[in-house]
Amino acid sequence: MGLAPVDRPRADEPLPNKSGYTLFNPTPPDLLRSFNTDRPTKANVPWTIDAGRAQVEADLGFYTRDHVTKTGVKQTTWTGVAPIFKLGVTDRVQADLVLSGLYNHTTLTDRATGATQTLDGFGDVTLRSKVNLWGNEGGATAFALMPYVKLPSNTGGVGNDQVEGGVFAPFAMSLPLDLTMVVMTQFDAQKNVSDRGTHAHFSQLVNLNRAIVENLTGYVELYADESARNGVGTFYTLDFGLAWVIATDLQVDVGTYVGLNQAAPDLQAYFGIARRF
Description:
The protein is mainly β and 277 residues long. Helix content is 0%, strand content 57%.
């Protein structure tokens, strides 16, 4: 998940009126916004893709290692090709189809006995929307809401086979020294493991990014994840990412999440790609 700097239009420069453009009346090429993505890192951006445009963003490979001392289980997971398909519906609304992994492989190892269990399968499907409330065309700040619903399409036991949903709320602000800050809150209603009830789940993050050299942007992010379910601890990660725009509307990226406490996964690393059409 990644970011693009917030443009600062001149005081005498009027913002373009693109409210008439839709999926069936696409935005002309000369009015397109700067290419931006919801990768790398965990932050989503508040800017939508233009009406009538399509975009694909994907983890090509994602690795997780978690040394869970409380339960005595070591977990490693490989996810291959986890794409997000995006479509600009109006000037402020986009629709997303999120696949959480065309292939997922998890190995669970009991450290006491050495016994292992493997899970292999297709991940869940998520339907998501992004609605920009302000700042889509530039300015010092931008804000959006991103409601979603997850559908239990997984195979091989790699998901919890439950319908769940929630909302992201990303806010971006331009800072001195050409920095962009993104603050994002997420609320989810998740199913309980032991019964048919639900519990609240929250996450918050602060992300700073800036261009290192032309077309190469660096990211650093602090992330916190909290569940209202009893016995589930809050975890924290420190995240890093690099994104390189190698051609017009084409980006490649790499990143890592480093666990800061016992409840967090020890290490997660990934690489991916994004393309606008």
